[in-house]
Task: structure prediction
Amino acid sequence: MERYDLVVVGAGPSGLSAAIEAAKCGLTVVVFDENSRPGGQLFKQIHKFFGSKEHNAKIRGFRIGENLLKEASACGVKVILNATVIGLFRQREVTVRIGNEIVHVKGDAILIATGASENMVPFPGWTLPGVIGAGAAQTMMNLHHIKPGKRILMLGTGNVGLVVSYQLLQAGCELAALVDAAPRVGGYGVHAAKVARCSVPFYLSHTIVRAEGEEFVTGVVIAEVDHSFKPIPGTEKHFEVDTICLAVGLSPMSQLCKMAGCEMTQAPTGYAPVCDKTGQTSLPGVYVAGDVSGIEEASSAMIEGRIAGAAVAERLGFLGAAERDERLKQYEAALSSLRKGMFAPENRGKAPKKTEEGLPISMNLLQKGYMDEAELEAYPGMIHMPGLHPVIECTQNIPCNPCQDACPRGCIKIGADLTALPSVDVSKSCSGCGMCVASCSGQAIFLVNEDVGEGFAEVTMPYEFLPLPRPGERGMALDRSGTPVCPCEVVSLRSAPAFDQTNLLTIRVPAQMAGRARQYRVGGAV
Amino acid sequence: MTNTADVIIVGGGIIGNATAYYLAKKGVSVIVLEGSDYIGNGGSSRNGGGVRQSGRDKRELPIAIWGIQTIWPWLSEELGVDCEYYQKGNLRLGKTEQHLKTLQALTDNAKSCGLDVSMITGDTAREICPYLTHEVIGASWCPTDGHANPMVTTLAFYRRARQLGVRFFTGARVTEVKKLGGRAREVVTCEGDRFEGATIILAAGYGSRAIANTVGIDVPMSQQIDEALVTEAQPPMFWQMLGTAAADFYGHQTQHGSFVFGGASGIEDFLEETEGIPPTNSLTSSAVCRGIMGYFPALREAKIVRTWSGWLDICADKVPVISPVCEVPGLILACGFSGHGFGIGPAVGKLLSQLAVGDQPEVDLHALRYDRFKANK
Amino acid sequence: MSKLYSRNEDIGEFVPAPDDDLIICRCEEITKGEIRRAVHDGMRTITEVRRFLRAGMGLCQGQTCGRLVQGIISRELNMQPANLTPAPSRAPMRPIEMYVLGDEKEGGVPND
Result:
């Protein structure tokens, strides 16, 4: 039987990272993936990633995928696509469907990196065509370039729900509402804010009562829920939509682990195999990394893959124990820096009232998706000064710091703690280069000049919609809730390779709107 | 919790549940102890669902015939759950002259016991089941055989027995039978829980052996793994139970449309024993697929959604022990069903209920005594 | 490790609910009411409900409904979902045609 040092199941972020790490140590590695394209979910991720430089922060997911593939190929990893692993048997034998044949392969080590699948929630009508997973919507849009629907309601305000909502808007879909049974937005506030300022209403403490339609979805009814998540009669709201997207969490796709006989556990991050810190399961030589071992972000999955790859290399005698320990130390540090802050795995389900800096968390942000101007004033990124300066509307402790490195003049400071809130150093002067605006994965940085004369102000915002506005064009400025506040004129639209498709749109608004205008809408009519 | 009942049944499979049901109907108090966390977790939910008479040993055939004539046709109604019983016959298929010889011998044996089994031609077999390949040149045919849903049947007995007041415990792995005052009276679980009854019935598959050993009784049994595959639902095609002279596979189409086919790759006797869920191996399902397609080319596109396996308790002479143990009064054995226990399960349950209350069983069980094993020479 | 568990604890009568006709297992079209009723019939594990009703035995093998069934049973038994063990997983991980599964290739992985 053909044998490899390492057989990896799944060519997503963790599987590829493990394969690269192992192959660089000299292992023969094969990666099987059932899809026709590698990269797992990475190629659907058109947004910029969070984290720091070592976590590929501010790089769009699909580019990270491209880089991983290049690296894998360069170090001799064999990536076999359209190859479905159908079983993992004793003595680490896998059976793989490749084309219309079954191939038996053994690995001295196996890494299961099968990722996750989307959860569903049942309501009357949930089996109608038009009710789809948010991940499915993302696949349709970003891989197949098909609009999932014309008018969509999104259930779920975790990062998946928020990110996909924004991408639906980018694809030209209308978003009727964002709904969540929880009383608070589950994902990053910055993700919520960029959806909210596109005029999408948030309905927290609401759930879907029923989907309407005979042959397919034609509408949806939501209602407010009580403390036991039961709909409150009389609070029903109706929306005409043709698509309902469900973003109600992910579950580890751990069936292969269970089938193989790995000891399993039911953790808050899903039903997953028990594993040690290197990802080794109860079966010697069988490892897991990424979402299959518990749901997290792709950034952590890549590090988990590196860790498992190094552990396997040491296990099979390709890497000394000291060298492995050195690498693990480095990777674990990178991993733990990502697992800090109010969205850390250990804080799941908790509702912090204050930031690490002791500032109050905005309830508006958590309930409506956006903050009041007044609330923002308390935050260190929010400053007022003459001339051009950045305004950073980043109010939660999330592990991310590209803005700090982005400013060539050192205006922005986060410090060594990745989750600290960014602050603006008023002693430094802003050149207006816009690198900070483009570098912010949360699109939370704006350049503001509160007085450009004649009673006007200019606001520069990140802009990722087509068609791109042209200088001189007139449109409406929207506030953080997406409400039109005043007509405005496009001053400039800047694009640069360094901005990586985040365009810098500068609009001119009446001076009193400098603190409110945060989005631009083409056309004048309200 | 009182741990006492008239009858303690060790083993929550089809035998244990059926026995409990028939005893409860007689007003006897019963406790059923199942070692795993699930009712019907052994061979009872890991078998091909055959309700056959043909192909059986003369010693157990009377039980099969009695069950099919007096219990199966009314079982769904009696239990209030559709057990998916289809009495549409059993075809055992042959492709070579050698196969036909094997089938002829089985047919002769069945006929000598008074069973309606006949040899038919390949064409007649195709009239009964049009999907058969033309390579089939003959078959044995028993029109009164059939199949049922083993998982549902087992749980239907459980459900009804429970409604009648039978007490069930799962996670109750019995490790020992204890004699008190000369009779088997008590069983002890691995956690030290004790249950007491005037009669103790061991119906725990292969596990019965070690338990019986604790009162000095041995049943010569071994364990063998059996594997099966399940297809996605197909349009209704045929309702016969199927087997082959070459024994490459057996099975049937279920009521909801899936085909369930069991079979072997030939290494089953040599697989190591494991804890937990019985493992499948990497070779068997592929071998079974090739076997099936060799008889039913129409099924080649059918998708396999699942494979499973289970341990058979194979008795030295391939028929079960269903017997009171006279050396240990109060103990009754029902084990070693050797891979064909499900079809006779309800009948065995009813007979055990008669044994347990001291009645003469309606079918003579003498040939299935525990002390029948003697050296040949 | 298995723990002694009585199957006769009183969980009350089955009370019909307005959403009992909600389909939970799409593959096998099993409703919430059927699952709840099975619990009252003594099925106290996901595995038993599956064997009794076929919930999770269809094409997707419970990938979609597994968690939902777990939630319904646990609510009926008034216990934490995590205390209910999910059903076993079995090869093949994806539905596979008989002619493919029966076609084992000699040698190893093809070169691209």
In short: The CA atoms of residues 88 and 260 of chain A lie 5 Å apart. Chain A touches chain B at residues 87, 89-90, 93, 95, 102, 104, 261 (CB under 8 Å).
